[in-house]
Design a protein that fits this description.
457 residues, alpha+beta, D-Maltodextrin-Binding Protein, domain 2, 2 domains, five-stranded mixed sheet, four-stranded mixed sheet, 15 strands, 41% helix
Length: 457
């Protein structure tokens, strides 16, 4: 039996993956710990320490069905509570948009959950407002724990030497493909944009959807962000945010013209505007689509499917008219888990229970559960063995993670403050759906940059 060692997975400039960054269309689900339909609130109000010697803290996630949509998180929580019966974790889950809104409302009433997932831009604002706990003393004073993280992971919420959050996952954005459908049509996996458009033409001629996409969920734009990096995203964004550059520039315009071209050539389903991420996932798993824009968080689902021997992962096309290095991947830290400053101040015992959980989650035992048992690439070093015969999709993802394609330090959306992340997604989806021309989409971003007051002068 072939086995691959994953110790190298996480060495070098960065090797990273992602948890489901996605949003569920399902209603908020109930976990075994807590009724997720209840509003997110501070555990100082809803989760007291009065149950004997049991310490209880709340943990709010950004998916509705944690057990099925974030199985690695759920599994680590269950094992931690099994080993620590004196600590109870009340998990609540909600679809990403709903979760984000709940966190905002909770921050306004000073009732944040004890531990919670936050969008980076929102977390920055909460840190500036003094609402996030400074984890530095408990993290940086434990060198063995620090050394367990991959390079760059602890910088996601580092401000002036203080750490206000830890990465929930790794962004590993790309395009999944069904090799059997490529073989059926006599096609090779594309390398360039021209190769991709040839595949699109042939798939359409054979009644196969070239690339599954559901634009109802605007945030499912992962491979598009990686493509944008090949058109100088990071060459312009700092200037845009400081008011010295514009979204409507020649480099970005060429990228948005590619979005328009992909849509016009039939890359995406005819009903893309009426379906979301989950329907697109099922379209791909059902063998109706040859490719799918997503990331490593779908690995376990694909390894459990009938298509596991045929599914591969690709960073997306290179562009002849692109900017700079075209061999760009995405292996960067994602949005953070944060701890309420109120919890740290008012309930030190509970805060220490949270720190104990975080050290378990990111420590060797949690990493083993995440990687070996749930086929998810952790943000920490893992030197165990992965059975490539049993988990062929995961093995292929790891091959990509260990390739020599450079990754930026962060994903484009992580550079954008607050709700402007959604605005950015809307601009790309707007072009795909034919709502905007490329020029109109970029002008929309310039107008919104000013309207939302995000320019830092």
């Amino acid at each position: 039996m072939v086995k691959r060692i994953m110790g190298l997975i996480l060495t070098g400039t960065m090797i990273m993956s992602l948890l489901a960054c996605g949003k569920a269309d399902t209603d908020t689900a109930k976990t075994t710990q807590s009724d997720s339909n209840s509003s997110i609130s501070s555990s100082s109000e809803d989760a007291s320490n009065s149950e004997g010697d049991v310490i209880t803290f709340t943990f709010a996630e950004h998916v509705a069905d944690i057990e099925n949509q974030a199985p690695q998180v759920y599994a680590v929580v269950q094992e931690f509570m099994k080993q620590n019966p004196d600590i109870k974790i009340e998990m609540t889950g909600a679809a990403q948009d709903e979760h984000t809104q709940k966190i905002k409302l909770a921050s306004q009433s000073d009732s944040l959950p004890d531990l919670f997932y936050s969008l980076k831009g929102d977390a920055d604002a909460l840190a500036e407002a003094g609402m996030l706990a400074d984890l530095s003393e408990d993290i940086l004073n434990d060198q063995e724990f620090v050394d367990g993280f991959l390079p760059g992971m602890l910088s996601v919420m580092e401000k002036d030497g203080a750490i206000y959050g830890l990465p929930a996952e790794i962004f590993c954005n790309g395009i999944w493909y069904n090799k059997a459908l490529f073989d059926q049509c006599g096609l090779e996996i594309p390398v360039t944009y021209e190769d991709l458009m040839n595949c699109v033409k042939v798939f359409n001629e054979n009644g196969i959807v070239p690339m599954a996409r559901g634009t109802k969920d605007v945030w499912s734009s992962w491979s598009l962000m990686t493509m944008h990096c090949r058109y100088g995203f990071f060459d312009h964004i700092d200037g845009i945010l400081s008011g010295t550059d514009k979204w409507l520039n020649d480099d970005y315009l060429r990228f948005y013209e590619k979005l328009q071209d992909m849509a016009e050539q039939g890359t995406f389903p005819d009903n893309a505007s009426s379906i979301g991420y989950w329907e697109a996932t099922e379209m791909f798993l059902g063998g109706q689509a040859a490719m799918f824009d997503s990331g490593a968080w779908d690995t376990k689902k694909f390894d459990e499917s009938d298509l596991k021997d045929s599914i591969g992962f690709w960073w997306g096309p290179t562009f002849e008219d692109g900017v700079g290095n075209q061999e760009i991947s995405m292996k960067a830290p994602s949005h953070p888990y944060c701890v309420s400053a109120k919890t740290k101040k008012e309930d030190p015992e509970k805060y220490q229970a949270i720190i104990k959980f975080l050290k378990f989650y990111y420590g060797p035992e949690g990493t083993e559960i995440i990687a070996a048992e749930n086929q998810s690439v952790p943000v920490t070093r893992y030197e165990g063995e992965i059975d490539a015969d049993k988990y062929p999709v995961f093995a292929r993802v790891i091959e990509r993670m260990n390739d020599d394609w450079e990754s930026p330090d962060t994903c484009p959306n992580m550079k954008l403050p607050g709700q402007f992340e959604t605005t950015y997604f809307e601009s790309m989806v707007g072009v795909i759906n034919g709502i905007y021309t490329p020029e109109e989409a970029l002008q929309f971003l310039d107008d919104q940059t000013e309207a939302q007051g995000i320019i830092n002068k």
